[in-house]
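Q: Could you fold this chain for me?
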Amino acid sequence: MKHHRSSSRRPLHSRIRTRHAVLAGTAAVAAAALTACSGGGSAGADIADKAQISVNLQGDQAKAGQPVKVSAKNGKLKKVTVADAKGGKLGGKVSADGKTWTSDRKVAPGTDYKVEADTDKGLAKASFKTAAPDKVNKLTLTPGKDKTVGVAQPLSIVFDHPVKNKAEVEKHLKVSTSNNTTGSWGWIKDYSGKDRVDWRPKEYWKSGTKVKLDAELSGIDSGGDGGWFVRDYDTNFTIGKNQLVKVDLDSKQATLMRDGQTVKTVPMSAGTPGGEKASWGGISVLMAKEGTINMRSETVGLGDSYNKMVDYSMRLTWSGMYAHAAPWNASYFGNTNHSSGCIGMSDANASWMYGQVQIGDPFEVTGSGSKGVPDPGNGYGEWNIKWGDWQAKSALK
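A: Sure. Below is the predicted structure, expressed as structure tokens.
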């Protein structure tokens, strides 16, 4: 009997295909091994080796007023740059372990930021945008940049909107001087009713001192309904001649002193004592040299008693006290205080004084018959506050 071959035996072409598959599989394993040994990798390995970071702020509605934190998902950070659309950069530091970087400054509202992280795995990038502010706070700085001012001129900042977070704002106001002058910030109300903070030295500035302010306020919240600051501010100025004007209400004389020496004494007539027409006493600071101006009594609450064009006008307070020419009062110079609160002199003497004084010079008013000292916000009246009491007005105690 003939034995038939089993029907389960595979045909020749099947065996050939199987052999080819085995050979192909063997080649693939070898290729994979070769690739691994040569330092390459699969797509998954590429992702693992590529620099990856995470940023705490994301999207286009990120919350302002907080620092940027960048973390390395793999590898270590070497350098991180966070810049806004205008090229402004946030400084910061990489942690000792190289895993995180934190900015020194807080992000401002309504700003686009780009993040670039240089890591040992390569360069990684990210971006985000902070939400727009409901309200923006701004400020006015005095003195302006590159000004030369007198020895009593404080650094003064008036805010457009109220500042509730006074300590947080003050912390970002950095004053530097060329001779390490001792001074302090103090919060007061400006004559306009707005919040104001002044930096006053303990004593009058020394002539030649250079002063610089860096108000690093971008990204700081005023608090309450004051709004956000969306930019930084700065100014610098130099202290000029060491001089002051002494006004003696008793002798009715005004004396310009320079470097402790008398330059010239001129007769004058100050405010009529005993009422609202009396002059302010204490120390006022020359705020502006306004030249010829129209002075009207109703603007300072004195009815319609005068309306004059006045020459050589030197403003001492916001409430309207000036030193100026007052030829109509000539008969009172040197003998009677008979003005509506100002310090009046002859045309010649007022012209001379106007040419000598500089903005920021103190006018020290002594003697009887004044109506007290002006509030600190009425011009620069903070010199009438004792040093310890002025320091107490700082929000950083």
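A (continued): The chain has three domains: 49-129, 139-240, 243-381.
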